[in-house]
Design brief:
Elements: H1 3-7, E1 8-18, H2 21-27, H3 29-50, E2 53-59, E3 62-67, H4 70-91, E4 95-107, E5 110-112, H5 114-122, E6 131-134, H6 135-141, E7 150-155, E8 164-169, E9 196-199, E10 203-204, H7 212-227, E11 233-234, H8 237-240, H9 250-257, E12 261-270, E13 273-282, E14 288-297, H10 301-315, H11 322-329, H12 336-350, H13 356-372, H14 377-393, H15 401-415, H16 420-432, H17 436-449, H18 454-466, H19 470-483, H20 488-501, H21 505-518, H22 524-536, H23 539-552, H24 558-564, H25 570-582
Parallel strand pairs: 4-6, 9-11, 9-12, 10-12
Antiparallel strand pairs: 1-3, 1-4, 2-3, 4-5, 6-8, 7-8, 12-13, 13-14
Amino acid sequence: MPDDQTNRRLAAILAADVVGYSRMMGSDEAGTLKALKHHRESVFDPAIAQHKGRVVKLIGDGTLVEFGSVVDAVNCALAIQRVIKAEAPSNGIMLRIGINLGDVIIEGDDIYGDGVNVAARLEPLAAPGGVCVASIVNESVGNRIDVRFTDAGEVAVKNISRPIRVWKWHPDSDPVVVQPAPIAVASPKAQSEPPSIAVLPFNNMSGDPEQEYFSDGITEDIITDLSKVAGLLVIARNSTFTYKGRSVDIRNVGRELGVRSVLEGSIRRASNRVRITAQLIDAATGGHVWADRYDRDLTDIFAVQDEVTRHIVDALKVKLTPVEAARIAESPTSNVEAHDLFLRARELLLGQKKNREVFDQIVTLLGRVIELDPGYAEAYAGLAMAHNLDFQNGWTGATDALEVAARFAAQAVEKGPAVPYARFVACVIAIWQRDLDRARKQAEAALALNPNLATAIATLGLVEIYSGNADAAIPLIEQAIRLDPAFVQQTLHFLGSAYFAAGKYETAAATFQERIRLAPETDLSRAFLASALGHLGEVEEAKRVWAELKAINPRYSFEGHLSRLPFRNQADIDRIREGVRMAGLNP
């Protein structure tokens, strides 16, 4: 990943401080330290672990915590304050908590920037035992938490140029405090997520760089098989393959991808034989959990993948259902040559380079696959996606590219109704055909077969946006980002669009700004950002963003862009136009 991506990110920051700490230390230093230690071990740290936060640093009685999800950050603060309220007489520890959502700069394990500064300034504004959040946080969480914050007006914040509207909550009038939710002990097992794993690209040990597609293909197949297990959280290929060719510390991989286990290995292919080695590693300690080596005929490759998957599932103590076991054991084809050609084609489809030449190669390879095995459903799905890309990019100039893609997608589903990729591709094409009901059914079918398919989750989120259900789209797209954190340069646009369609313009603007930072040449996100800024009254900034857009793409057509978006409700399109008009722009 580019350095820019690893040095900055959009994050939710929680700042907490003990009320009256200096006074408590002055009157009983030993007792205060003991009470603070007990509080951290029994309440604060377990709540952070349970809500997937990361303690950045402890500063005396203060703590700075980073969260990937603003909902997790707020729910964590609520849980802590409710428990403290319920047991306040026992130890005297009371906190103020401030939360902000913003851009942060990462240096090693530390974080800096306005996103952090604002959170630190919000914390003393909270009442003792309460929580104070920035308006962007209140807007982001919406109705996804069980409380409502109270508008506390605008405040001037030190070193921040513009006033910030703040919102507050206190547990005194909160009925949930009577029976606070229990906080589990601080350990990885206490987290609410299922066992999580990332599969790193297996090393090609064949001595032939031309065999890279094969080792990558087997890695992809293992990820797909593991993803079919509902009791696992499996990181997507896009994210794990960012580590390809790099010497990595598994503990860093676990922290960066948010997983407890990492699988790594190697593949050696020689003639009709293949050797696969695999090691499952505990991401927290770097210790080996399980390892094995397989020497087989190439014709046994699917059986080997099945064995590797089952051993991993067993090692993670996850129970397979009979249906899941059957799905993992299914082979896409019995023809070794057809599978080999499909792996070559899939590598091109997943690659960064896309043009007419690559399109022709994909079509030729997959055409040969179908000649060898007319029942190979994934080959039809691959052809459907290739022709869909041709439709979007106009490589061949074919006027019927979308219709051709739709025919191949229908064949893929017909020949492989239980193939998740076929269902996903059918969903994508249905969106372009503006058939949102069919798109939803295909996305839901894909996720029933593969609950970890991040692309299908994100695409279902798009269907919800275009159908007028933006609030339902937000958690879907956030889950897709959780499963594919390195691919956020695309999904952040979806997330920003969801916030925009929900009328949450401040959060939408921050999300689009993050997307622009990760994808500096985007015109699409700049158009949406300019509209969001128009709704916020930030006219000069909107004009600056629009000038950037036109410099990047002088031929950009705002109306042409809007005409391609399959919104079901005209009001959603009008809202985008209205924001641009409010910004004084004439697109």
